[in-house]
Fold these 2 entries.
Entry 1:
Amino acid sequence: MLEQLQRRLGLQTIPGVFFTSAGVATLFVALAVPFDQIVAESFGVLTGWIARNLGWLYIFAVTSLLVFLIGLAVSRYGNTRLGTDDSRPDYSNLTWFTMLFAAGIGTILMFWGVAEPISHFASPPFEGVQPGSERAASDAMTVALYHFGLHTWTIFALPGLAIGYFAYRHNLPMRISSLFYPILGDRAFGPWGWAIDVIAVLGTLFGVATSLGLGTLQLNSGLNYLFGVPSTGAVQVILITIITSIAATSVALGLDKGVRRLSQLNIILAMVLLAFVLVVGPTVFIAEGLVQSMGDYFDALPWLAFWTETFRETDWQRQWTLFYWAWTISWAPYVGIFIARISRGRTIREFVAGVLFAPTAFTLVWFGIFGLSAIQVEMNGQVALADQVQQDPSVAIFAFLEAFPLAEVASALSVVIIVIFFTTSSDSASLVIDMLTRREDQPSLVRQRIFWAAAQGVIAATLLLAGGLDALQNVITSLGLPFCILLIFMAVALFRALRADYRGYSMNELVQGRAFPEVEAISEMTQESDYVSETVDRH
């Protein structure tokens, strides 16, 4: 039936993946629009249960995966290439990095670069710390870097590495289900694999929709500051429609013409904004704070990475850390496939070093310049940043820029950057979802990519109308859980495949259980022991 529907619509898809994903997304919108309050409350209850009972799983899983990736990079598997042994990277390091950044967390940094440090400075996450104190400032920077540093990029790097390895070295389809071939065998290409890809598609849809929702809130605040545009739900829906249209145009052009050029343009504009704040802001204070924040981050990382608020009964970790991890995990299929697509030819060591440490270094600089400057502005009383951020985080960067000369010009530049980050996130995700929902031998149809771009915009608008920031946080914290579990199995499958590859065994031998002779020996000994036991029992 689904295949007949596909032929009538003239699509090129895997029907079970495409129509199931589209159906679930449609059902969500159909229920959320008339029953927005009930849907928001239901996800709030579910998020509360997950935070109380499974919050530790998010914390432990992400930290364990960070250790796993670093271990792979320094191990004997680090020289393995994502491709044949003589393959080389398709993109230069600079181009590769700009595409990583723009498709990864550009929108997030624009939203939280000022808002998060100021929030923690005014309301410290740790007990006994005085708001507005020197310790509060230090902790605010440390926690912000924890949320957007190595842990965030671990969540992106693992699926990216696994997808690149299986696709370029073992010629498996570039889909999340392919990563489970060492565990599922040929079942990865049937209903089991389709179910995995559906989870990946839905996670991507809602994860990117959450980012688009946050970006829209911030964009609305910027237009309100510059032109007096009212901050209302109707205006936000119009903004989502406009930006989705731009993203649809970009996604129709493809990766090299669309995403690549937008990414390069945006990284230049972001650097201009950074340089502006660095020059006109407290330059010496920023330089000193950058060095100290780096030391504080790496000093606190070992215990902060396992901190679960065990002895405190507050809602802080659900609102911040669990939301970030779930949000990032929901992005993992999309960003992972996108990173894999642009990383062919790199060794595992190059990949891990580039994807983990280069964006983390940029994040350190970004938060150092924006976060430290914002804290200085608040401490000097130039602008009442803390009060405004606590009321509405989306106004943070525009309220912050009021403390500097040429505030309107800088705010206008920020709006442009937000729009482009918005666009690159949406069109990159649309390209990836299209890859997840069709076979590799099927052409990528423009109308399919446009459909997924439109779906992200509709879901983002629905979530904003259903409860704004709270609804975005609750839905994504709930939906990130299934893929968190998949990430753990993904690491197991990758390690099994690397180990077999290093020993010279094929993927088929791994699936059939012939890749590890010691395992076969144990199996034969077990069968022999069972036979002896049965013989003794009979006699």
Entry 2:
Amino acid sequence: MTSTGIRLHAPAPGWAIAADVVVVGSGVAGLTAALRCEAAGLRTVVVTKARLDDGSTRWAQGGIAAALGEGDTPEQHLDDTLVAGAGLCDEEAVRTLVTEGPDAVRRLIATGAHFDESTEGGLALTREGGHHRRRIAHAGGDATGAEISRALVEAVRARGMRTIENALVLDLLTDAGGRTAGVTLHVMGEGQHDGVGAVHAPAVVLATGGMGQVFSATTNPSVSTGDGVALALRAGAEVSDLEFVQFHPTVLFLGPDAEGQQPLVSEAVRGEGAHLVDADGVRFMLGQHELAELAPRDIVAKGIMRRMQERGTEHMYLDARHFGAAMWEHRFPTILAACRAHGIDPVTEPIPVAPAAHYASGGVRTDAHGRTTVAGLYACGEVACTGVHGANRLASNSLLEGLVYAERIAADIAASHAADTLPAPAPAPLPQPAHPAHPLLPPEARLTVQRIMTGGAGVLRSADSLARAADQLHHLHTEAREALYENGKTSEPGVDTWEATNLLCVARVLVAAAQRREETRGCHWREDHADRDDTTWRRHIVVRLNPDRTLAVHTTETADFPPTTDSPQSPQRPQEQ
């Protein structure tokens, strides 16, 4: 796969450091990969957009899924994952996840993460949607992500690993042969480095998290602007299944005009017995699925949306008053505090909830070792598409995927280094282009993109809504391009303009994939194609960016991914969009 030659408009790097591997992101995936690479003797640099503990991992409430309980097996975990994935999971990728997962969790505990224990002394396990067994390990009641983040950050700092905080990664550096040679980045604020610089390394691990900020309301933090996916596309990598954005069913409803990060009400609340009800107290999920409120997330989100449409309301309710104050305070202290901060007391009243963008099941396409279609570029965690999640992620599989595939990436990089197939020192990167290759959007375009995506490509989609979104996004794209190439003008380089530009990039790909998939499957819900169509659409949609910034979209021949190296093109010709 060759690079597109497209880079964000940015100043040339004013400083550079060298490493064997640079990890971009500091969630469970990034820090696990970094710790394993460092333990293998590799010079490792961690780059993170905010502070080390500021990514999506620390917001994870529910827990981490693994077959750790009595009577549970990896095979049962596999079955639940495949069902949730609605026919698009890569079975071997899932088998890797569920078989290597239990030991990966034990290694996480050995690193210093403390999980809640039962009265008998073992791990306290709960259930979440789509799981037929209690297999969700949690910490601090509903603060699992915060505890995992704490343990990994402490381990990184104890090792004295080199870290660059408050740094937005810009673009991948490549050599004359198209192989990874590092990244450019912009450091915000004071520190050892400032402004635009570079880390030269022959291996880059993208662990940049999600892209929830492409929608108006999301559970994702403000830093989740799809930077990793956009960088990979500009570098020539393929992305897959970006249409499958999971909308969490139970997000605290703060009003119809609420924007930005919204408080999550964990699925574990339903796992412990809370009920979804309408304004009359009717449990509307009964009869819709054998697991009722604990059905896979796409089914629950659709159930809520249908009931909202039937009743002409903007939210439903989650009723857990029967828990009592003691259980709320012990098991769900974080959620209790968030609700009370917004004037709702779940001990005495139902919680208003509605679906909001939560997790991207698709992302940068990888193989079983986290390798992308660009040599030397790896991806893991939410930014990646390993094939584990298919069309809909099973609850609490994300932290586990981050753990398992980060360890696999580190092992692959270490093996390449030992075999002298990892270039050392890093190959010389191609020089920066003399002129800006990619126009930047103004900061206010971020809100415009979010509103376009919420209106046209949210929980409910149709040919008309998607066409409208595609036209509006194309207008933004064309307007910025004409301003640059006809008038020589573009927005000033800066975090706000880079983020807005990245959001437009991933939005265009998401909409193109959603337009192509003319069926309803998993968390992709087409009102005009209400049925699942395995004959035509049990396939993956793969997108790459052409050098002229058009999108090449193709559908795989089968439900299997082609290899990431020397990837054959589908006989179906790519559609330029």
